Amino acid sequence: MPTDKAEFSALYPCDFYTPEELLEPESMYTVYEIARLLQGLEPDADIDEGTEEILLDWAIPWVMNNADDLVVAEPRTDDEPGYYGLRAEGDLADEDPAE
Hints:
The protein is α+β, with helices and mostly antiparallel strands. The chain is built from 3 helices and 3 strands, in the order αβααββ. It has a 3-stranded antiparallel β-sheet with strand order 1-3-2.
C-alpha cells in the first residue's frame, strides 16, 4: 500500500554510484561483493544471509542498468559465481581497439 511522504521524517535523493565510482579498474567482483560496495561496506564484509538477500535486490538491477560499462567473466569453478568488472578498452577478445 502506498504511504504518504508526510509519514517519513526525512527524504533523500535516490543516488547510485556509477561503475567508475564503485569498482577498481583492474578488479573483478561477484554480485555479492557489488551489493556490499553499493552500501558502503567492504567487499568481504561479514553480513547475515537475510541482509545479503536485501542487498542483492539492489545490486542485480544496478548491474543490469550499468551493463554497457561492465564486463563479465564465467566462474572459474562450478561452485563460484560469475564476476563483473569495469569495462576498459581492449578487455573484450573480439573488440577492435582501433574502433
